[in-house]
Amino acid sequence: MRIAFSAMGARALLRGPHRRLLRRLLLGGGWGRRSAAGPGALSPFDRQLKRKQKEWAAARPEMQRCEYLREEVGSRIADRVFDITRTFPLALDLGCGRSYIAQHLNKDVIEQLFQADIAENALKNAIESEIPRVSVIADEEFLPFKENTFDLVVSGLSLHWVNDLPKTLHEIHRILKPDGVFIGAMFGGDTLYELRCSLQLAELEREGGFSPHVSPFTAVSDLGHLLGGAGFNTLTVDTDEIQVNYPGMFEIMDDLQA
What we know:
8 helices, alpha/beta, 258 residues
């Protein structure tokens, strides 16, 4: 089942066996509305453009060719979920893509899973999983769920694209139950270091200056403060290094685009 949310309200298909569940979990009137940016707020990412890119990528006939990193991270997040000796009645996969985490989990750990992503094509082409799932088209920056809803929230390689990470972490904390768990993975500050340096050196040599060509990433050292500021406690923040070798710059760019 898929439900779509627009910026100013809902385009929700509340039919079928999930109707009562959805009405209980979704916010009432006024939810999903975009609030005005605060003073000095920056928006480095065009979310509408990102939606189009994800829709295009998820509809490609050979989409699996470039999913090796998300598959690997999804598997590692699932391992962290299995490390917790409890069953989660209701979970949310935020920025799920084609369901890279759920495929590694089972009904013994998660009884019901909501999957949220901005790209409908990603949800349509989701990888199979034995867990009962409800797919929701929603922006990670505007979560349309009531507070104290989920026992578990997971997110794999999605949060580096949000414009206001502290606000998003606050929202995740809001929709979690008091004893809820959040497990997420995002690209750290040293990601694509070689590509960033190569582009800067080349532009300095040719132009005498440089402009950013690689997205900004959050420093790992800042994540603990951001999570603590959002209200999380009993924090664990660590770093995994995954090295992928490419023959050249254009091969990297091709995979990044896809």
